[in-house]
Amino acid sequence: MDPITIGLIAFATTLLLLAIRIPIAFALIGVATATAFAIFAFRSGTFMPDRAWAATSQLVFTNAFDLIHSFDLSMIPLFIALGNVAYRAGITTAVYNAARVWMQNLRGGIAAASVVGCGGFSAITGSSIACASTMGKICTPEMLRLGYDPRLATASVAAGGTLGSLIPPSVLFIIYAIFTETSVNKLFIAGVLPGILTLIGFLLVIYVWIVLNPSVAPGREPASSWGEKLDAMRDAWPAALIFLIVFVGIYGGFFTATSAAAVSVVVTTIIGFAKRTLDLKGFWEAIRETCVQTTAIFFVAAGAKIFVAATALTGVAPELVQMVSNANPSLPVLLFCICLVYLVLGMFLDPIGIMVLTLPLLVPLVEAYGLNLIWFGVVVVKLLEIGLITPPVGLNVFVLSNVVGKAAPIGTVFAGIWRFLCADIVVLFLIVAFPAISLVLSQAVQ
């Protein structure tokens, strides 16, 4: 059996296992191990399993060891810990409260504040699912209590939660950087303008929705006094400080991204204890949640690394590049097909799974066309962000529904989410059509 055939069977098997909800780490490791074993066993043209055991074991354990000992990977638990500690210390809640106080006198102001709060949360941590879960506990029950239409109350938070993928720091950007050997710093800064565009798009969706159908939001609340607004801003100063540590530290040349994450965790912990908003129990809960989330991501990342190594043995990627070169599609057609693949996969698979399945095949193709990998990383993460709220799976939708309970059935969330999906598609088109949106800031970073 030739390696190309083995590789195609491996991809088909992986998609099947993921479709029937086999945990992604086990699917990737199992298929990659079987693929490597088959290639080594058929190396001489006949099936000789005795020669495959040692080579397969070396591929599996060496790649897993190299990944886990990657210095860049240490950013993931640090940024996850930053988000969990900040939530337990009330810092993320303060960001939402500040936005709420400033915007509550606007029609639909609480929904808009929820999106802004999600953006602020995203600037502290890098997980969209954590953002949707955390902000769902804070914002959605309050909007429902005030009389917001359940579709608006839930969809705004589910969509706002996806900002955690694009607004840095982002776990997806870190994983993309590791597997494509690109700069994490450049990816982080490249996501800023697309993230802001997305946030503005979501705010416009809320505004237009309420203008066309005023019944979805209650009337304006009384405006807060300037004293209340200033107090709310003062309460949110820890979030601003953390943001400055990460961005000024990294792009001012004071810290690496990993060091900035570590310093931010320490500063956040000190602030929490000093303000008495964080105690030992809350700190321990934050660390425990960080360990659970990090372990899951590391298992997936290790499986992905092994899968990429096994895929390289099959030669599927060079064959795909040759096939596309022979077909000679125009660049717009190629980009449309890539976007279509990600949007379809996003309906069924989780973002990390999609990334590790597609990057081994698409990165060589993108490089063959001379496209910028930093820009492509922003496009990929934006597509993955869209997948988080795309039916029928939409992970953020399911997370929010589980957090809120019976007040937010999945059908209700999806009934409101399509409006935000339209804004996402517009932003995606702008990013693809005008690469400068992603590259103008990253080109200034060394």
Quick recap of the structure?
The protein is mainly alpha-helical. 77% of the residues lie in helices and 0% in strands. 50% of the residues are buried.
Secondary-structure map:
Layout: H1 3-19, H2 24-41, H3 53-68, H4 75-88, H5 91-103, H6 109-122, H7 128-138, H8 140-146, H9 150-161, H10 163-166, H11 171-180, H12 184-190, H13 192-212, H14 226-235, H15 237-251, H16 257-274, H17 280-314, H18 316-327, H19 331-346, H20 351-368, H21 373-387, H22 395-404, H23 410-433, H24 436-442
Q: Give the mean pLDDT.
A: 83
Beta-strand content estimate:
under 5%
For the biggest sheet, the summary is: none
The percentage helix is: over 70%
The assembly state of the depicted protein chains is single chain
- From the N-terminal CA to the C-terminal CA, the straight-line distance is 46 Å
- Summed up, the helix count is 24
Poorly predicted regions: none
What is the succession of H and E elements? HHHHHHHHHHHHHHHHHHHHHHHH
Structure write-up:
The complex comprises the extracytoplasmic solute receptor protein and the two transmembrane proteins. This is TRAP transporter large permease protein. Belongs to the TRAP transporter large permease family. With 446 residues, the protein is an all-alpha fold. It is built from 24 helices and no strands. It has a domain of 281 residues. The protein is globular and about 80 Å long. The termini are far apart. The model has no long low-confidence stretch (mean pLDDT 83).
